[in-house]
Every structure is written in C-alpha cells, then in structure tokens.
Design a protein that fits this description.
By secondary structure, the chain is of the alpha+beta class. It has 3 domains: 65 residues, Dna Ligase, domain 1 (2-Layer Sandwich); 67 residues, Dna Ligase, domain 1, CATH 3.30.1490; 93 residues, predicted glycosyltransferase like domains (Thrombin, subunit H, Beta Barrel). The protein has 4 helices and 14 strands. A 6-stranded antiparallel β-barrel has the order 9-10-11-14-13-12. A hairpin with a 2-residue loop joins strand 10 and strand 11.
Length: 256
C-alpha cells in the first residue's frame, strides 16, 4: 500500500471528473488522477471538475494538484472542456443563516456562488439535515476553500440557537387568516414564509403552529410582533411575546 498517497491527498474521495471527448468520465480519486499523469495517460493541462469548485479547471491549476506539478514540460491541451457540469446526483440542500435572517434551502453550487460573489459572508452559518446544529460556513469542507486566507468574520454563537422547522402555520391579525409555512424556530421566535404578509413591522399577530410529528413538538399558539419583512417579500420574522412555558420548553429541546 502506498502511504504517500495519504500524504499528498488527505481527502482522497472519488469526487473528480475528467473532460474527455466533449464529455466527462468519473468520478476519480485525486490519487487516481495523479497516477494517470505519472503513467502518461493524462496531461497536466487536461481539465477536471469537482462539484464544490463549480467550474472546470486545468489539473495544473487546481489547488489540489498545483503543488505536485514540479517542472512538468507537458504541452497545453487543445481539448475544450464540456460546457456543462457533470450530473453528480442529488446535491446537498443547505440553509444559510446570516444577519439574523435564514434563507434556503439551496443546493451546494448556489451556496458556493453566494460565497464567491460575496452575498454570503464568512461569518454566516449553514445547516443541512445531517447536522444537529448550525456550523460556521468557513469551517465546512464544502465551502472552506472559498475563505482561505480571508479572516473569518466574528460570529455570534447566540445566533446559532435556532433550527430549521418545516411546519404548517396559520397566521391571523384578527381580521383575516393566512396559511403559511414556518422555516425555522428558536425560543425567541420564528421565520415564516408567505406571500400574504398580515401586517407591517411592529404589528401584533397570532400564530397557530402545527409541527410535524417527527419534530417531537405538539401544536401551539403564540402571540407576538413582526420584527422584519424578508428581503424577497415572501415572509417575515416573528418575535414571541406570549407563548406557553410548555411550548418554549419543547422548542428549546428541539433546537438543542
């Protein structure tokens, strides 16, 4: 067994695709690509794709392989990488929490785009169904390389004490009833998605929340005020002002 493989490639998962003949092949482990180069089966200027990169990159310029080239005299390849991304199966769904607002779910590529364009800052948190709590985005394998060399923004750990919750919600302002969807909850409030926002910031409303059975929570009623309209005008953030102690206890247990 070649132990040098682990030294060169700490992450040797099969996640690289090769551009070949107008199409692609793969996935390959990075050690497999390096062995193909050493055997003369690949050129340093051939292109590879990894989902978290979001683009085709020549092997010689890819950060995983760049330091291993060491004096290669290979000629530039005339092959043009395919103008599409490989279909690598269902992408991970992510929720993003930044500036006290949660958005999502997004596929991995969309979150990467937001990171590179600066719309998702290094101090944001992300969550997916495999996590038990929010994680700083700069500490997550899929996104950390975007923030290499960039000082991470300070994060408020209190902001992480919330969790996505997809639940049916009925909202009333005592004049009309609106059907909506809860997208996250904390012991202090929740974010609600609806095209029919039942008031302005500061107005008092009442929510009847019907959590799914797998959440372990029972239905509850809460009164409070609208504290923010979401940027896309497709929902609002709600702060509890009256809610039963049992409901708060159930929410805290679910979040933690």
């Amino acid at each position: 067994m070649d132990n040098s493989r682990n030294l060169r490639f700490p992450d040797d998962r099969a996640q690289f695709y090769l551009a070949q003949g107008g199409g692609y092949k793969g996935p390959f482990r990075p050690s497999e690509l390096f062995e193909k180069i050493q055997a003369g089966q690949l050129n340093w200027s051939d292109h590879c794709f990894r989902e978290q990169d979001g683009a085709w990159i020549s092997i010689s310029e890819h950060p995983v392989f760049k330091s291993l080239r060491s004096g290669s005299t290979s000629k530039p390849s005339t092959a043009v990488p395919p103008p599409f991304k490989p279909k690598v199966g269902p992408s991970m769904k992510w929720y993003v929490f930044s500036n006290e607002i949660q958005t999502g779910p997004f596929e991995t590529g969309m979150v990467l785009k937001g990171c590179t364009e600066g719309t998702i800052p290094s101090g944001a948190f992300v969550w997916n169904e495999n996590y038990t709590d929010w994680k700083p985005i700069g500490e997550v394998d899929e996104f950390r390389q975007v923030f290499v060399g960039e000082p991470l923004q300070p994060v408020d750990r209190r902001s992480s004490k919330r969790r996505p919750l997809i639940a049916q919600v009925y909202v009333t302002n005592l004049k009309e009833v609106v059907s909506a969807i809860c997208q996250d909850v904390s012991s202090g409030g929740m974010s609600v998605l609806t095209d029919l926002i039942p008031g302005k910031v500061g107005e008092v409303i009442r929510l009847n929340v019907l959590p799914p059975a797998e959440s372990g929570m029972s239905a509850f009623v809460a009164e409070g005020e609208i504290v923010r309209i979401l940027d896309q005008k497709n929902g609002f953030s709600f702060k509890f002002t009256r809610i039963s102690p049992d409901a708060i206890e159930a929410i805290e247990e679910y979040v933690s």
